[in-house]
Amino acid sequence: MMFLRHLIVIGIFIALLSSSFSSSANELTDDCINKGRSLLHQNLYIDAIPEYLNCIEFITKKYGNSHINLAGPMFDLAGIYMATGKKDEGVDLAEKAFNITIQQTGITHVKSDEARKRLADYFYHGTGSNNKIEKMYLQSLKAKESQYGEGSIESTVDMIELGRNYRHMDRKDDGIKYITKALNIRKKKLGNDHILVANALTTLAIENNGKESNIQFKEALEILEKNYGAEHLEIAEIYFHQAMLAAQEVNNKGTQRSLLNKSLNIYEKILGTDNNQRLIPEDKQHLIPIIIMLIAQTYEGDKNYKEAESLFLKGKEISIKIMGPANPMVETFIGQLADLYKRNNELQKCVPLYEEQIQMMEKSYGKDSVMLTSPIGNIVGIYKKIGLPKEAEKYEIRKKELLAKDKKNVDTFRNNQHESKPELAKLESDLDNNSDMLENTIREKCESGKCREALNDANKRIKQFFKEHGSSGKFDALLVAQKKVAISEIFIKYNGIDQAAVLLQDALEAFQKEKSGLNVMASIPLLKLAELYYKQNDLEKAEKYYKLHLKLEQKNNPQLLRCSPSPPPML
User: pLDDT tens digit string along 56-92?
Assistant: First the structure.
């Protein structure tokens, strides 16, 4: 499933044109900023970099090197650096933009709050800088309590952000305490029905991620409905988070589907499903297709393949209308449809869809990207099942060529082909057979209400199998890693999240140890880990793994720079 490659995570909003750091004091300043941002809208990062550098130079000469007008283009350029794999340059420039904002507006100013959140969420999170985030928010909290007094509304912003950050420092309890304190202050100062109280309740529910979350979501919904009525984007967002919570429970697809439909109905009514006039905000364009996809997946899980097919087709059509025919979300729906037909044994329908998916991926990732091995491998498997070995062989050759694309690794790869190591072919066959048996067993037990037991048993069996089939050579280890990625999808399908995470981490470690060209295959488990944590509603971890995946892909496919997701937003 190539789901998250194109989502970048629902928590990352791409609102590039924010007034927070823009200034209309000078038309030339606005003009130079808008040139760069126009290129960002087209994902033309390489072209945007010199525009931003020229803009920063222009503003520096005109106003000096610490003017507030520098903060906006600096943050934008820092985001481009992050998106194109220049992490260190991106973080350094973002820190400069943040420091300028603090110097010019003061540490407690609302613009400083916005800059602080941006620096934390899009430059520090996922780069092992959680201690910096803690220090930054503690400094702000201390300054606000000194200026406004303890228990001020202003200080609750920092308390909530500290709470969110502590979960990623394995200090969830400390985080809950800070968010709860902020919630109580807001209730006391603003009253129980204020929208800021609802925001704090929503954050607390997400961080709790348990049974008590539904109580907090319900309370937040009641407040928002009193203030906004029954249809508002924030209400749709809560329904979405409730659906993600329901997805963690076994046999709860009906509740999940109902909540997703509530969210979808609001988004469709407010945003619409056609973007010919470019009226849908850029940070909201992905929401409707994502929710349609999730609803379709619930039907697929219930074996209601006709309904799932209808929704996947609808999602593809709406994605084209909202984002254009070349958008990666369209390719995602094509892949989902092909996978659906494959599971329903409608194999003849799969091949043209996988071929279409390959063509789109070639445009985004390049014709030599190892990411292509996934749909190519699917075509190989289908042709073998329907008794067309010659057609399968053509695609298998290309798959092997992609894996061997690094010239330094060609000899190693050839020496480990199945023809020269018959025991390797047997190992792969055993792994495939065990995968099929595993899925059949899990499915049968889940249908009889014993899903958790089935997942635990399957986990023990697969651990034992890999232990008994310890790899004897380098390429054997890579083959086992590939199969672990494939088996992880079975666990994900039946909500075996913990088991899937372990398999993906094992595979990731094996690929990262590989020093030759095959280490690029680490991008696959990185992407699937991002998807996994997205489904768990752990957006920061999802973003972390997605960025690592993207960085590895960009390193091996420079043309990807023009196809990568938009950089971190102006908040």
Answer: 999 999 899 999 999 999 999 998 888 766 888 999 9
The two most distant CA atoms of the chain are separated, in Å, by: 76
Tell me which amino acid residue 430 is: D
Taking the C-alpha atoms of residue 157 and residue 182, their distance in angstroms, rounded to an integer, is 8
426: its two tokens: 């047997």
- Topology agreement, domain 272-365+369-404 and domain 408-562: yes
Give the tens place of pLDDT for each residue, 348-373: 899 999 999 888 888 766 788 777 88
Q: 121-125, 219-223, 294-298: which range is least confident on average? A: 121-125
Per-domain residue ranges for the chain?
272-365+369-404, 408-562
Half-sphere exposure in the Cβ direction for 503 (13 Å, CA): 29
DSSP 369-415: -GGGHHHHHHHHHHHHHTT-HHHHHHHHHHHHHHHT-SGGGHHHHHH
Which CATH code is given to the segment(s) 408-562?
1.25.40
| Stated length of the chain | 571
- Residue 430 pLDDT level (bands cut at 50, 70, 90): low
Tell me which fold the domain 272-365+369-404 belongs to: 1.25.40
What radius of gyration do the chain's Cα atoms show? 25
- 77-81 long-range CB contacts below 8 Å, 24 or more apart? 77/36, 77/49, 77/52, 77/53, 78/123, 78/567, 78/568, 79/122, 79/566, 79/567, 79/568, 79/569, 80/40, 80/45, 80/48, 80/49, 80/52, 80/567
Alpha-carbon span 204 to 502, nearest angstrom: 28
